[in-house]
Structure formats: structure tokens, C-alpha cells
């Protein structure tokens, strides 16, 4: 259970998002630059959110309230977040932090760090989840003109990583050894300056290397040598 000081203000068991935070008061434990906040029910449906959340996803409250949080995230998030939400539901953790790709409207994306915080009910069971999204400022990193940066094999591996495929699955699909897959993934992690596979996918989308609006993911031909 979260420490009382770290909980959002609640009304009838659900978080209430303050318009302003007075000096000396604490926000939910999260990076200070986080502004996008949403309250989810136990089924991960959006119950309420602040203005910054709606502004970043570029959709009105009437359109997304009552919808799953996955409605404002890229399909790739379904390969990353379910395990985290399950741990909150099972009581195996009070929060998680992950990097994802979120949708801005229906045809744009942005990279964000997402924090999920469990909200406990009277019997210490899960009554909801508070989601904090911290959009990453990566626009300046996007090249004005796409530059080929991937081999055909790199592109296929990146597409597989974006679907959530494991090293063993990629090795089987691409007729490579597991060491070969790890070698190519490692090269791309360094090339994209990403600490892990989730961050690699996030940066690839934010840079326009992977197409938005298609599933399974596809690398943009202009980035392939």
C-alpha cells in the first residue's frame, strides 16, 4: 500500500486532481515534470484526467472517458503494460515506471514515460490506478529528411521488437542464432541511444522510423539502406 503522503487526494475512493499545488504540499511521487494525469478504474478505463492529459493526446474528455487507457496508447503498449497492471492488481507492487509510445490524435505519436500507481480501497484491495505520463521532448532529434540508418535485417528485427517478440521468437522467424539477434539488437540500442528494448521502440516511433497507424509495425522504407 502506498504511503499516505504519496497518495493523490481522493473523493469516494477516486483520485481528485488539484488545479494547483500549494507550496509545501506534495504531489504523487513522480518526476516533477509530469503533468499528464488520469484516473483509471480497476478495468483500466479512464474515469477522469487533467487538462494536460487531454491536450497531449489531442482528444476531448467526451471521446476518451469511459474508454480503456490503451485507446490513447500505441498498440505496442499492449506488449509492455499488461504485466505491470497485473502486478498492481495482484498486490505484487504499488507502482511501476515504463516507457511507451502514446497517440496524439489518430495519426501522430509521442514518446512518454508512464507511471502507474495503485489506489487501494478500504479493504486494501485495488480500487483503481492513477496514471502519470511524462512526454519526452524528442522533436528536436527528428531529422528534417529521413536518412537510411538500418539494413534490411535491422529493419525486420526492429519490427519484431516492436511487436514484443522475444529473442527466441525472432531467431526462429529470421533464421538467426539467439546470439545473432542479440548482437543486432545491441547495435540498434546504441544507435538509438536507448537503454532497453521498450525505449528502442519508443524512440523509433518518435523519430518516424516506424510507421504510425499500422499493425504489425513496419519500418519506413526511407530509413532502410
TrEMBL record:
Gene3D superfamilies linked to this entry: PAS domain, Winged helix-like DNA-binding domain superfamily/Winged helix DNA-binding domain
Cleavable signal peptide: none
GO molecular function list: DNA binding
CDD domains in UniProt: PAS
Positions of the UniProt region annotated as Disordered: 1-32
Residue ranges constituting the HTH luxR-type domain according to the UniProt record: 143-208
Ranges of biased composition (kind: Basic and acidic residues): 16-28
GO biological process: regulation of DNA-templated transcription
Superkingdom: Bacteria
Protein name listed in UniProt: HTH luxR-type domain-containing protein
UniProt source species: Streptomyces alanosinicus
Amino acid at each position: 500500500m502506498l504511503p499516505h503522503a504519496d497518495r493523490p487526494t481522493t473523493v469516494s475512493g477516486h483520485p481528485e486532481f488539484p488545479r494547483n499545488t500549494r507550496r509545501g504540499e506534495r504531489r504523487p511521487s513522480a518526476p516533477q515534470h509530469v503533468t499528464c494525469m488520469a484516473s483509471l478504474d480497476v478495468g483500466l478505463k479512464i474515469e477522469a484526467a487533467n487538462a494536460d492529459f487531454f491536450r497531449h493526446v489531442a482528444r476531448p474528455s467526451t471521446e476518451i472517458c469511459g474508454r480503456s487507457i490503451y485507446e490513447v496508447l500505441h498498440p505496442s503498449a499492449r506488449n509492455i503494460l499488461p504485466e505491470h497492471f497485473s502486478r498492481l492488481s495482484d498486490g505484487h507492487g504499488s507502482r511501476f515506471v515504463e516507457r511507451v509510445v502514446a497517440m496524439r490524435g489518430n495519426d501522430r505519436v509521442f514518446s512518454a514515460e508512464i507511471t502507474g500507481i495503485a489506489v487501494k480501497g478500504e479493504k486494501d484491495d485495488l480500487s483503481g490506478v492513477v496514471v502519470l505520463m511524462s512526454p519526452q521532448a524528442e522533436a528536436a532529434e527528428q531529422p528534417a529528411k529521413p536518412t537510411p540508418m538500418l539494413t534490411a535485417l535491422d529493419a525486420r528485427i526492429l519490427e519484431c521488437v516492436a511487436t514484443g517478440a522475444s529473442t527466441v521468437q525472432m531467431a526462429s522467424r529470421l533464421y538467426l542464432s539467439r546470439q545473432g539477434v542479440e548482437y543486432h539488437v545491441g547495435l540498434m540500442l546504441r544507435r538509438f541511444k536507448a537503454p532497453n528494448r521498450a525505449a528502442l521502440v519508443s524512440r523509433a516511433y518518435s523519430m518516424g522510423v516506424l510507421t504510425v497507424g499500422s499493425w504489425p509495425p513496419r519500418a519506413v522504407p526511407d530509413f532502410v539502406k
